[in-house]
Specification:
The chain is an alpha/beta fold. The chain contains 12 helices and 12 strands.
Length: 393
């Protein structure tokens, strides 16, 4: 193991025992464990409903599909959806896959989230939604985005996959819009191996998500529902398909893990915030590095670092030095996503200037954060950053 890894396991005996209990039942596909986790997850985050999926990426896909087919949602095919220029790839793909057009907006250079000053300018007559991304644990200015969405008759949804446990004015990120998505992949705040969820207060959206998750059938829905009422014939309703869905179902083992991990989430976030506070206290003398500015209470997925001043253009040298000392690094998510070759396959509006996204694309990187104290690792990180700065000024 490296001296300062990007991620580490959050499992203990409780998770190991939960796995064995599921194995002993012989029931592995989506069932009672999934239902229990969904109920507890929604309660923890203060929403009426949550729906579990086999990954956070699948949660994004299912949400966009549900927005297309939900009878109570107005999201016209061919309309454009505002997105930040920095996020993970599967924030963007479902937008196009479900028949919508990407409307890219630059990020704020300090928070790394979507720049509110650019959002209003990006809205046009064909804009239908804002897809806010809470990056690296840091909530967007969600109350302002909600106001903008309301004033312009837009739907606000949140990709909260990197920010589970973050809050803004004592409300969890992921719960400000019509729906929010979450990830429980290995490197995230809780780990169910693979896994993701959508939270919402909309019963119709919840039911649409459940149909989309399992082949587009009616089996998991009540007899009277918002998607398509059942026939009343139990045999016919077993395989009655009403939406063009997918197989995005999670496993019982993943949900059993989630139940145990959810019990630990608050403590995990508390320690991540303690690590961030310590880093802030020891990095104040660094002159040519920019760290992410916190909005509300970040759950600090990781620590982003952007080179400034005389250090611009020297990322390769510094990450090689960090690697030599056992400190793992990665780009800040995808950097400027529009710089990727996959854009040739995507539909998007003419790109505005994405100055800040390009800045972190060229001069940014991030290091990990953990659910346990990493003060020694952070001391070494800052020591190396300081020496590199002194040697190159």
């Amino acid at each position: 193991m490296s001296f300062y890894p990007l991620a580490s396991s959050t499992w203990g005996d409780e998770e190991q025992n939960a796995l064995q209990e599921v194995i002993s039942t012989g029931k592995f596909t989506m069932g009672e464990q999934v239902k229990e986790f969904e109920t507890k997850f929604a309660k923890h985050f203060g929403t009426k409903y949550s729906v579990m999926f086999n990954s956070g990426s699948s949660a994004n896909l299912a949400l966009l599909a549900a927005l297309r087919y939900d009878k109570n949602v107005k999201l016209p095919i061919g309309s454009n959806i505002i997105v930040p220029a920095v996020s993970w790839s599967t924030t963007y793909y479902p937008v196009n896959q479900l028949g919508y057009i990407l409307n890219f907006v630059d990020i704020d250079v300090d928070t790394l989230n979507i720049d509110l000053s650019k959002v209003n300018a990006a809205i046009n007559s064909d804009t239908s939604a804002i897809l806010a991304v809470n990056l690296l644990g840091n909530p967007c200015e969600l109350q302002m985005l909600k106001k903008i969405a309301s004033e312009n008759d837009l739907i606000l949804i949140e990709d909260n996959c990197e920010s589970m446990g973050a809050t803004l004015n004592e409300r969890h990120s992921g719960t400000f819009g019509l729906a929010g998505t979450y990830s429980s992949f290995f490197s995230h705040h809780i780990s169910t191996m693979e896994g993701g969820l959508v939270t919402t207060d909309s019963e119709s959206l919840m039911q649409t998500l459940k149909s989309i998750r399992a082949h587009g059938w009616t089996r998991d829905l009540p007899d009277k529902n918002f998607v398509h009422d059942k026939t009343g014939d139990d045999w016919d309703d077993l395989y009655r398909f009403v939406l063009p869905g997918y197989n995005l179902r999670p496993l019982e083992m993943e949900a059993a893990l989630g139940i145990q991990q959810l019990n630990k989430l608050d403590n995990f976030v508390f320690q991540r915030r303690a690590n961030a506070k310590y880093l802030d206290s020891i990095s104040s003398k660094l002159r040519n590095y920019r760290f992410q500015k916190e909005i509300g209470n970040s759950s600090w997925f990781g620590f982003s670092i952007v080179l400034n001043g005389s250090l611009k253009g020297m990322r390769r040298q510094i990450i090689e030095m960090l690697s030599q000392h056992g400190i793992e690094t990665r780009p800040i998510v995808t950097g400027n996503f529009t710089a990727n070759p996959v854009m040739h396959h995507m539909e998007y509006l003419p790109l505005p200037e994405l100055i800040n996204a390009q800045e972190i694309h060229e001069n940014g990187f991030f290091v990990g954060n953990h659910h346990y104290p990493i003060f020694t690792q952070l001391d070494k990180l800052v020591e190396i950053l300081a020496k590199f700065e002194d040697d190159h000024e």
